[in-house]
Amino acid sequence: MSNYVQRVLAKLIERNPNEPEFHQAATEILNSLAPVFDKHPEYEKAGLLERYVEPERVIMFRVPWVDDNGVVQVNKGYRVQYNSAIGPYKGGLRFHPTVNLSIMKFLAFEQALKNSLTSLPMGGGKGGSDFDPTGKSDAEVMRFCQSFMTELFRHIGPNLDVPAGDIGVGAREIGYLFGQYKRIVNQYENGVLTGKGFSFGGSLIRPEATGFGATYFFLEVLKHEGLSINGMRFALSGYGNVAWGAAKKISQLGGKVVSISGPDGYVEDQEGISGEKVDFMQEMISWRKNIVKDFADKYPSAKFVAGKKPWGNVDADVYMPCATQNEIRIDDAKAIVAKGVKYLNEVANMPTTNEAMEYLQEHGVVVCPSKAVNAGGVAVSGLEMSQNSARLSWSAEEVDAKLKWIMKNIHDQILQATIDYDLGYNLVKGANIAGFDKIAKAMMAQGIV
Fold first, then answer.
1. Are residues 203 and 195 in contact, defined by beta-carbon separation less than 8 angstroms?
2. Secondary-structure class of domain 209-373 per CATH
3. Which residues are known to be catalytic?
4. What is the per-residue pLDDT across 149-205, written as a single tens digit (0 to 9) for each?
5. What distance in Å separates the CA atoms of residue 53 and residue 443, rounded to the nearest whole number?
6. Distance from C-alpha of 58 to C-alpha of 81, rounded to nearest angstrom
7. Bridge partners of 343?
8. In CATH, what number does 55-188 get?
9. Closest of 95, 114, 97 to residue 106, by C-alpha
10. Domain layout of the chain by residue ranges
11. Is the Cα torsion angle 36, 41, 44, 48 positive or negative in sign?
12. CA 105, CA 309: separation in Å to the nearest integer?
């Protein structure tokens, strides 16, 4: 690592104590970028990295609301507007009890690079709250969303910051958020949020987009490796929209999904999860129970294993974490290598710890990094923004074709970066460098701001 990168990273950790997820993301990304600064000394002179690692704006606020029993509840709300060099801030809202400032900053940091890779004009941001929608009534969720937007509205806009959904924020929540925004600003600015219902400006295939995009990216990896998806077995974690979209597309293309998971454990079904089983996953999502055992209860071919993750336990050719950050740790990495799995296609944001990532790569596992793999979600959000701006609606086939091209282009950019910097087929470093390159050039062109 260059001395410049070391200094900036040390200062970042010192200035942001008690933010482990942010430190983890910064360490992984900055380590990858060292060759860029060796090649471009003018970046150090311009203090580019010091400016890049510092969010442009961090907004924190309280969110008071009243539950169905008439009791006042108070949650924390966040919006981290990280980098706007290439476009308005863009990134999801996460409603989950684990949400804190460190997680918001790491997600926004990664989002900036991810959005850059899509080649769409979008900066990076992220937000959310420690509110947990699980088990809440629709009325409680509506009141919370209305209170959340009552503060957030002043910080967002179609040309400023365009939030979307994430964990805990689906079509229901986006609808309530948009309704309150419209009420407050007295304008029909449907480009201010993405992930909307199709009846009021949403895009077709947006719910499936992250899983579809992850599959399309992996097809490019297989093409590079001279392999076919036909007959390949995929072990997924999670069972929400991301895993559902991935299972749907993998089975359509000839692969076989053999596991999904939830907080209660994982399900293994070596007969394959396709057809009506994929449809049942969507039904389970609508129940909002956040357990996966129901799948095994319905299908005799499925085996439920309580309290465990699929990593190292399920026979598969490809592992695809689709749940949350840091679900693959060093012990899981060792189990993956021992199982002989050759591909880790990261769909969740930063699902692998740095230690586990290093171990996997040292032992020959091809790691497809999340900031590239899961960019399909924000790519279709960007396409939704385009449709809203033009006051039109594209067909599912049009959106899908554009998504497939974007994911191919992302792989092409990464591959070129690995060639330019002599990285071998290291997709992790290549993604970081390719995403950073566009942002760095834009920041240099716009001066010291």
1. no
2. alpha beta
3. 126
4. 999 999 999 999 999 999 999 999 999 999 999 999 999 999 999 999 999 999 999
5. 12
6. 6
7. 318, 366
8. 3.40.50.10860
9. 114
10. 55-188, 209-373
11. negative
12. 27
